[in-house]
Each structure stands twice: as C-alpha cells, then as structure tokens.
Amino acid sequence: MKRRIAILGSTGSIGVQALEVIEHLPDLFEVEVLTSFNNAELLIKQAKKFNPNAVVIVNNEAYLYVKEALRDDDIKVYAGEKALCEVLEMSTIDMVLSAIVGIAGLRPVYHAIKHGKTIALANKETLVVAGELITKTAREVGVNILPIDSEHSAIFQSLAGEFHNPIEKLIITASGGPFRGKKRDFLRNVTKNDALNHPVWSMGNKITIDSATLMNKGLEMIEAKWLFAIPEEKIEIVIHPQSIIHSLVQFEDGSLKAQLGLPDMKLPIQYALTYPHRASNTFPRFSFNDYATLTFETPDYDTFSCLNLAFNASKTGGNAPCILNAANEMAVQNFLNDKISFLEIEKNIEKALEEIPFTTPQTIDEYYESDHETRLFLNKKMNLE
Ligand code: NAD
Ligand code: MG
C-alpha cells in the first residue's frame, strides 16, 4: 500500500523538497493534497505533475485562476483557510506533512490530528505556540508527530530503541547563522541582505532571519521540549558551524548518541515520510575528506538575546511562547519590509512579552486570541513611533 500524503505549503522551501523526495520514491507515496497560500503558478505546475485528489489555494482571489488552469484535470480546487482544514478530513489521506510557515499552520495540524492523521511536522511554530495542547491531543487520539526539523529528526533517530531509557540531556546544534562571532555594535547596522545570506542552509525568508537572530534555536528548544517531553533545563544549545552533527541525546550513563549527515533537508523529510523504515536514495554522501575538523562553540547569549527571550517565555509557559512567536513573526516581517532594524526585532519581542497580560489558553481559539492581541499591540506601537 502506498502512503497517501497531503502537503500543506507545498510551494515553499520544505514543500518543494518534500515533492522531490516523493518523486524519487514513486512506489512508496501518492500525493493526495497540495496547498499554497498565494503561489498559484507553482501550485498548478505541481498539481499537473503529481495529480493530487485536491488542491487548496488559501488566497481566495487566486481561486478562479487555479480552477481554470486545472479545468481539464480530475483535481478538486478549493480556496480559503477553512478549506485548508476541511480537506484534511478525506479518508484517503494517511499522513499530513505541514510545511506552512508561522502560526497559520496550527489550526490545520490540530484538525488533522483530531481526524487521526499521522503528522510529519516542519512547521515548528505549531509546537512553539500550542505544544501542550497539540501533544496532549495527539496522545489522546493516538497519532504520531514525526519531526522534519533536522535537529529534532536527529534526536528522534538517536532515540530509536531507547524509548524506556531516561534522557539526561538533549543537545541541539546550531550553525550560528550569518552573524556568528559578531557583537552588537556590528549587528546595529546589518541589512536585510546580510541577514538573508545564510552560510549553510537555503530556506524560506522567515526561518532564515530566525537563524540570523538565533530565535530559530529558541523556537527549536521549545519544539524539542514538547516533542520529547523534556524541560528547558535539560536542553543545551551548541554552535556547530559545519552543521554535520544534527543534534545529540545524552543518556543517564553519560553516553551520547547523535545523527550525522550533510546539511540537506531532504534527509529528515524522507525519514519522516518513510518512518519507521528507511529507503535508499542517491543524495550526496558525507565524506571525511571534505570535513577534516568539526568545531563547537558556546552560544553568545549577550549578543543574541532572542535565545534568552525564548528560554524565559518557555519557562513562564501559558501564552508567553505564543506572544514570543507572534511578536517574532511580526517583527521579522517588519524587518523584511524595511520598517525596523535588525536589533529592533528582539526589542519588539521583549516589549510584547512585558506588556501583554499572562493567560493560560486551553483551546486553539484562545491561542489565536493571544496571537491576535500581540499583533494588535505591536501594530499600535509601530504607529506611535
Ligand atoms: P516558505 O516560506 O518557503 O514556505 C511556506 C509555505 O507555506 C508556502 O507554500 C506558502 O504558500 C505557505 N503559507 C505561507 N503562509 C501561509 C498561510 N497564512 N496559510 C497557509 N499557507 C501559508 O517556508 P519554509 O522555509 O519552507 O518553512 C516552512 C516551515 O518549515 C517553517 O515553520 C520553518 O520553520 C520550518 N523549517 C524549514 C526548514 C527549511 O529548510 N526551509 C528547515 C526546518 C524547519
Ligand atoms: Mg532546524
């Protein structure tokens, strides 16, 4: 039986790579659903190639264009946010791969879990915002959440056969981003192009900026906390510029297990799709000749204070990680739109965390309320300045 996959955000960096993986394993997978926010051209191209059961274009304005282009194909076309959830109810879907960016991925994944679909999760913001509710619901329904984020895939792979052995510590590696080794004086003047120039990974714009501020590692720490049920104190961040060791688990006997490989997202994507099996592929292989040295550094928490903000928000719990995420999404967008400077990203997040009242959301809607409140707050703040 082929595994039938729905890909949310198929037109993004992870979505496109997921389709490359699937294309090379035609005996294992069938594409059931493809979705995009706005990229009608690529969605149509993908639909014609993979012939899914349905596509969703979230932006209603592009609906007629997509519908017309797929007129002669046997593919259902839907539009809007609601359709993004409802389409996941189809009984022909076995697994939902979420490669949406930001909190927009939360509701569809929650909906898919409720309907018993296995989740392959790239969209870390889902767990950052509502990790407690999402993991609790997945446990209740009995569905697996398989990580795609390379660090979490490495931890997950290292835990194979170890599920009864307590974890002493998780060590998440970070490339350090384009500003590794720089100080705040330097960061004051960096531009959008400097920040988008990642030394190792080629990814969507939002996560690339998160990698430059190191907020990405903060988000990944929270993601790991929920995926592996580990408190913040037992998660350590280590800078490893070559990005060959993708993360490690330390067990109670002091033994460390890690997963290594070239920095290529197709590897963790494929593992999540084929789990618990592995499938052969022709991706480039690691060679010691190319990597004579692997190096490690302690993160500079004074310079990259987004890391501290994430640890503190995570310890506070409640709506704090949701505020952290919403403020970060908005600040990154404002930075990309040349409205604020690089260092103002962390200032905005700090302010939102200070000013917005603490609550303990219990439902998805309550998380979205906190998200909305944060965005309103930052919008007002921007207009005052
Ligand atoms: P991207 O910006 O390249 O793609 C995002 C996708 O989501 C697009 O298909 C877009 O159409 C869709 N989308 C955007 N806004 C949406 C909305 N409001 N509603 C519905 N769909 C929407 O992003 P990416 O780099 O592929 O990252 C996707 C997710 O995977 C992020 O959460 C990121 O943190 C995570 N991730 C990415 C990488 C990577 O290498 N790119 C690695 C690890 C984790
Ligand atoms: Mg990662």
Which labels suit this protein?
four-stranded mixed beta sheet, Rna Polymerase Sigma Factor, Chain: A, 385 residues, binds nicotinamide-adenine-dinucleotide, 16 helices, 3 domains, alpha/beta
Task: List the SSEs and their pairings.
Layout: E1 3-8, H1 13-23, E2 29-36, H2 40-50, E3 54-57, H3 63-69, E4 76-79, H4 81-86, E5 95-98, H5 106-114, E6 118-121, H6 125-141, E7 145-147, H7 150-158, E8 167-174, H8 184-187, H9 192-196, H10 205-213, H11 215-228, E9 235-239, E10 245-251, E11 256-260, H12 266-274, H13 306-316, H14 320-336, H15 342-355, H16 364-384
Helix pairs in contact: 2-3, 5-6, 6-11, 6-14, 10-14, 11-13, 13-14, 14-15, 14-16
This protein binds nicotinamide-adenine-dinucleotide (NAD) and magnesium ion.
Question: What's a concise summary of this model?
Answer:
This protein is an alpha/beta fold. The protein folds into three domains: 3-147, 3-Layer(aba) Sandwich (Rossmann fold), CATH 3.40.50; 150-263 and 281-302, no CATH class; 317-385, Orthogonal Bundle (Rna Polymerase Sigma Factor, Chain: A). Helices cover 45% and strands 15% of the residues.
